[in-house]
Design a protein that fits this description.
Helix content: under 10%
Structural class: mainly beta
Order of helices and strands: EEEEEE
Number of helices: 0
Largest sheet: 4 strands, antiparallel
Shape: elongated
Mean pLDDT: 95
């Protein structure tokens, strides 16, 4: 299990705008059938965190807006995802 936490951080030099903290838990379980063959299951974002993976602060302007607006723009943490991997060494 991997626990990842990033606390709040400044998005501008004067610390007037800060990001929220982010916490994500990933899980990996696997089994090696032999030295050459193994199976692993990864579960990303195990607890379905809805935090922001990364945040930026900059101006943007949508169509129809009279002037640019400075705001926080973010990329959310990916939803819960599963990956099953079969590994073989030849």
């Amino acid at each position: 299990m991997r626990f990842r936490h990033f606390g709040p951080a400044p998005l501008v030099e004067d610390n007037s705008v800060r990001s929220d903290g982010t916490t994500v838990v990933n899980l990996r379980a696997g089994y090696d059938f032999s030295e050459r063959i193994g199976l692993a299951l990864d579960v990303y974002n195990l607890f379905e965190s809805e935090d922001e993976n990364i945040s930026y602060y900059y101006e943007s302007q949508l169509p129809g807006e009279a002037a640019p607006v400075a705001d926080i723009h973010c990329h959310p943490v990916e939803p819960r995802t599963w990956r099953l991997a079969l590994r073989g060494h030849f």
